[in-house]
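Good morning N.,

You mentioned wanting to compare the apo and holo forms, so I went ahead and generated the holo version with zinc ion. This is what I fed in:
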Amino acid sequence: MPHEATLDHAVATLTDGTEVRTPFWRIDSGQEGEVLLVLAAQHGNEVQGCEVVRRFREVCEQSLRAGEVFLVPFANLPALRHRRSHISLGPEQPYGDDRGHNMNRTWPGDPEGNDTERVTHSLHEAVARHCSRCLDLHSWSRFTASATLARGDNELSVAMAEVAAIRFIQWRNRPDDTGQGTMIGALFNNDPARAAITIELAPQWVIRDKEVAAGLRAATNLAKLFGMIDGEPELLDGPYAELGPDSDSHQDRLHEIKAPFSGLFVEAGLETSDHVEEGQLLGHLIRVEGLETVEFAAPATGYLHQYGCFRPNCDVALPSQHPYADGGDALAAVLEP
Ligand SMILES: [Zn+2]
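and this is what came out, ligand included:
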């Protein structure tokens, strides 16, 4: 039976007295069940999830049979308008220079805090505190495969990761309690009655249909897991590629290729998450000295965890994405499942 979404707003008053009205949808099946939050764009340049949320609304309007969903396509509206991760960042400034404005370090927010903490608090009061399950949609750079981030110590978070159907899963430990603001995922996963996963849909800055479709499948599968939508989850062909919370659990399965000398790295038309066979061509370096071409082959059969030449802060700065490699720069990494 179709259910129409209701539009509502979380209202924050900023330090200068102006208001931020964050729009969200709420869909109530009218039946008992879990309350699922799906939010996107806590970081203003991570926009793939915004379209996932819009499409998931349509799925829920048609198919929700139990529980309730809260859908927030633009969690950090000021950062979205600023077109950067946090409102405090200027050109090429890394995420770490957040000066207290990294929204995903501010939960549950503070009505007397800085402007980001105030927006977080409004979302916590109007949305998050009503919810028992959370899918938090982010994006990282194009050089690292899309992945589910889940908490191995929360059984529900594990179950969520196992139906999300994103090839890579990164298991995380419970974060240290700093007494400061926390991540929304930790807010849910530290409570035995609640659970969350994060999905990083690569890359940032753009919206790609393939990634949006993967995000929509994940959200729909979660609703099926919780009995909110009928049907079996649509799972992946082949195994998950899992990375442990520490490198011991995957270091013998993760094969990294670094540039042995400087040169221009030319990719061989692959993408992160692609399956590669041992010996398959991954790309070549054009060495400046002698203009020699040096090819790189996959050192193992597995999935591309990283692909392309990049350096730190490639998520905010174009030169860090430049394919001219110095010796030691990352070119690719293959993970055996
Ligand atoms: Zn993010």
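Helices lie at 48-63, 77-82, 115-126, 155-164, 184-189, 209-225.

Happy to go through it together on a call whenever suits you.

Best,
F.
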